[in-house]
């Protein structure tokens, strides 16, 4: 299966293609699955960085369908990593539910990157959900001594694999409300006071598209957080 017009555009942009092979699978919870892969040469060719992500290609009735996923625990020496899937309805999740050792999947790398934060953040302010949890964990791993406040939107009672330390990380679960309104409201309620007591804050938002757009506009326009201290990327659409 080719990658269609999207693949053609990525090729013109000099994106790099790889083939990953499944080596293991773990059902972490009913709604969360971890697959292990060999990297097809990816980690030998491209340096690992926090929140590193790849585009996986799935077969949608003969048509290419791509989704982005964060690498979990990439090991360049061994050429392996995991990918975690927040399971819902959809082609990508259908593939992840049944994938087993020996299965392969095409991948493309383009657009991933992470610039070191300078100055180092006095506190991280993170907004995420199950879809972005691997990236949230990667960001926390990259700043092991930095305190963080994490607003995390939930849709069930699953015990997800957070890498939070209660001594440094303030995890604030927010049950998902209609259109994500509860998450936006909670961040708007909490954030101004937290910013007043923080030197060199850094805010990172990766949630549903509408919520992400709303919080990005709020942080930049109403709170005045500089674009160099802010990152926002929608991870899914409702």
TrEMBL record:
GO terms for molecular function: oxidoreductase activity. CDD domains: siderophore_interacting. It comes from Glycomyces paridis. This is Siderophore-interacting protein. Residues 15-118 form the FAD-binding FR-type domain. PANTHER family: FERRIC REDUCTASE, NADPH-DEPENDENT (PTHR30157), NADPH-DEPENDENT FERRIC-CHELATE REDUCTASE (PTHR30157:SF0). Pfam families: FAD_binding_9, SIP. Gene3D superfamilies: Nucleotide-binding domain of ferredoxin-NADP reductase (FNR) module (3.40.50.80), Translation factors (2.40.30.10). Coiled coil: none annotated. InterPro entries: FAD-bd_FR_type, FNR_nucleotide-bd, Riboflavin_synthase-like_b-brl, SIP_FAD-bd, SIP_fam, SIP_rossman_dom.
